[in-house]
Every structure is written in C-alpha cells, then in structure tokens.
Write a structure and sequence with these properties.
Length: 118
C-alpha cells in the first residue's frame, strides 16, 4: 500500500515563518529562528536593535537620540519604521508604560524581549 500523499489541509506542527523560510529548518532551536529573523531585518531595524539590545526601556524619542549620538544616519520616521519591524517580529515589546516627550506628548515605551543572541 502506498503512503498517503499530504493534502493542502494537512497541519504542519512547526511552521516556518515566511520571513525565515530558507534560513532555518523545522528542527532548529528557537535561538536559530531568532537569529534568522534578525538577519532578515532592514538596516534601520538592525540599527534600532543594536540600541535596544541593552534591555533599557525607551520611547521613540530616546531611541532616536541614542542613534543620533552615534551619527545622524536615519530620520525619526525611518527609526519608527525600524522599531515597528522589530515589534512585529517580537524582538521588542510594549512595557505598558508611557512617558512624556520633550514636547509634552505621551509616548509608549518599548523594551528588547529576546535573550542576547550568540
């Protein structure tokens, strides 16, 4: 008897996300998946990740200030896009806190959520 051919409706117990397809195997540990996710981010997201990896909670304004201190490469809008990419991938999480910006507006606080990748 022939083995049953999988159908389109068969469930894959450990899916490989589209952004990491080809970079990891289903049997790879979570740390490899995290590294593959981070390898796939844009330059601006990687720059935000470099700032946020210290684990210190920051608002967008503080992320921009920290990046600007290293050299003005990205605009505030670019940094927000990079931060959103990391948030969508699960590398950043909201702390649930807000803080005032220099202009007095409330801004949400973000923190790095992954263990340091080696």
């Amino acid at each position: 008897m022939k083995p049953r051919q999988p159908s389109l409706f068969d469930h894959d117990p450990i899916p490989v996300e589209p952004q990491t397809r080809g970079l990891v195997r289903r049997t790879d540990p979570d740390t490899s998946r995290d590294a593959a996710d981070l390898a796939n981010v844009s330059g601006r997201a990687a720059a935000v990740a470099e700032i946020m990896k210290d684990g210190k909670p920051r608002i967008d304004e503080e992320i921009h200030s920290a990046m600007d201190a290293k050299g003005p490469i990205y605009t505030r809008t670019s940094i927000c896009h990079g931060r959103k990419t990391l948030l969508d991938l699960g590398f950043l999480v909201l702390t649930g806190q807000t803080r005032e910006t220099v202009s007095g507006r409330q801004s949400r606080e973000y923190v790095w959520s992954k263990e340091e990748l080696t």
